Amino acid sequence: MKDHVILGGSSPTVREGVSCAPALHALPNGRATAPIASSAVLLFSLLCASIVSAQESQCTLKLADLPIAPELMGFRLGMTTDQVKARVPQALFAKADDFGVAKTSINPDFDPRIDKSTFPGVRTVSLDFLDGRLTSLWLGFDGSFKWKTVPDFVKGISQSLRLPDAWISWRTRGQQLRCADFQMTAIIVAEGPGFRIVDEAAEQTVTARRQAKEEQEAGEGEEQTQADAVVADKKSKVYYPHGCGPDKEIKETDRVVFGTKEEAEQAGYKAAKNCPH
To answer: Rounded to whole angstroms, how far apart are CA atoms 185 and 159?
Structure first.
């Protein structure tokens, strides 16, 4: 892919894959008019500036790129349950469900077993695990936390985690940041801010497992339906359960299918003598 020059500002900017070379309008005699050319350059400069700004505001960070931040209270996505237990010995872990998901929560604000000084300004902590590793972290802060509003929280956590300025509005008063393999959300809950960070790859894994289970159950149901179905002969008023057929093929005009043998019997059909009952 060729590099293209973006016009605008004091000097051209080279961006790979971004074509910002303006075309000059020409008169019938082949000469470009200066006003049109200048307008074209200005227009393309503004357009390219907006494209570059959008590119630079995207978050391409991965979970592995995030530094340790005190605002995460000693947690980080990817921790094992043993590591979380070492951080909070009072944490209890439920058995994982059929998809490998387990959840737990702690409440430093009113649990007397937890030293509040190790969770300054934190009311609740919710933890989600997939296959024994932390994939979602929620921190609910009270009114004493240092960042009181969503804008203040976003500014502060962005500095602490070295995040780009790519947050967008979320729901009514929240903001959200989507990066390469994780997303963050900041909102106000009760009297303080709330913050969630989620491993997107883990979320996709859970979704895939749920879909696979649904497809498996649907297939099993279809197999059971076929197993229950019976073929009958309109002419002889005899039905043949799944796995048992007539000596001679039933004519298409005389062939009828019932969902179960009970349906066939209710319709006045009897089981073939050569089939097990």
So the answer is: 15
pLDDT at 23 over 90: no
Enter the pTM of the model: 0.63
SS (H, E, C) the chain: CCEEEECCCCCCEEEECCCCCCCCCECCCCCECHHHHHHHHHHHHHHHHHHHHHHHCCCCCCHHHCCCCHHHCCCCCCCEHHHHHHHCCCCCCCCCCCCCEEEEEECCCCCCCCCHHHCCCEEEEEEEEECCEEEEEEEEECCCCCCCCHHHHHHHHHHHHCCCCCCEEECCCEEEEECCCEEEEEEEECCEEEEEEEEHHHHHHHHHHHHHHHHHHHHHHHHHHHHHCEEEECCCCEEECCCCCCCCCCCHHHEEEECCHHHHHHCCCEECCCCCC
Domain positions in the chain are 3-56, 63-205, 229-277
